[in-house]
Amino acid sequence: MRTRMTAAGDRRRRLLDAALEVAAAGGLRALTHRAVDARAGLSAGSTSYYFRTRLALLDALARHIGQLDAEDLATFDPGAVEASAPGARERLLDAMAALLERWSGPGRARTLVRYQLLLDRTARQGADAGGGWRARFTERMAGLSGLDPVRCRLLAAAVDGLLLETTSEARAADRAELRSRLDLLLGGLLPPS
Questions:
Q1: Rounded distance, CA 95 to CA 76, Å?
Q2: Check: CATH 1.10.1040.50 for 61-187?
Q3: Residue 80 confidence class, pLDDT cut points 50, 70, 90
Q4: Is the distance from CB of 24 to CB of 110 less than 8 angstroms?
Q5: Contact 31, 22 (CB under 8 A)
Q6: HEC-encoded secondary structure of 156-191
Q7: Is 110 helix (H, G, I), strand (E, B) or coil?
Q8: What's the predicted TM-score (pTM) here?
Q9: Which parts of 27-130 fold into alpha helices (H)?
Q10: Confidence category of residue 36, pLDDT binned at 50, 70, 90
């Protein structure tokens, strides 16, 4: 029984990964059950077996992206307990730049689809695809003493804007460029180290 459940979970993951690829390549309009079946290399009807409607597929894709983002954010660790600790700002800049480099480089497709789903969500009031990472990022940042919740939310919103700008550019931003932009951003939010 457990093997069957694992196989079903693996197949769902394969379908959601394929859905992410389809949406990244052609936008949400290209996201159909048939296109996902073809991208996943599975027989016709496989996607509709797990996700009966397009809305169910969109919501599952949003949750899938949220899970992938949560996995990335679980490894996000600036390594500083206090914002005033020596080198805390530098460690924070390094960690944030690495995360944004990943999301605008190798994770660019996921980021693009996240924004598409976020815009789609406003029209249909579906699952949250965009704000989930912001809430988790804000939680992680709140662990730094001296950074109040309002500043954490402001930082997350600004990082979201920077990520959108970086992801929409034709070339990937490198870590040094991201770090420089983040340093300017943090200048008004964090106490000097």
A1: 6
A2: no
A3: very low
A4: yes
A5: yes
A6: HHHHHHHHHHHHHCCCCCCHHHHHHHHHHHHHCCCC
A7: helix
A8: 0.81
A9: 33-40, 46-50, 54-74, 88-104, 108-124
A10: very high
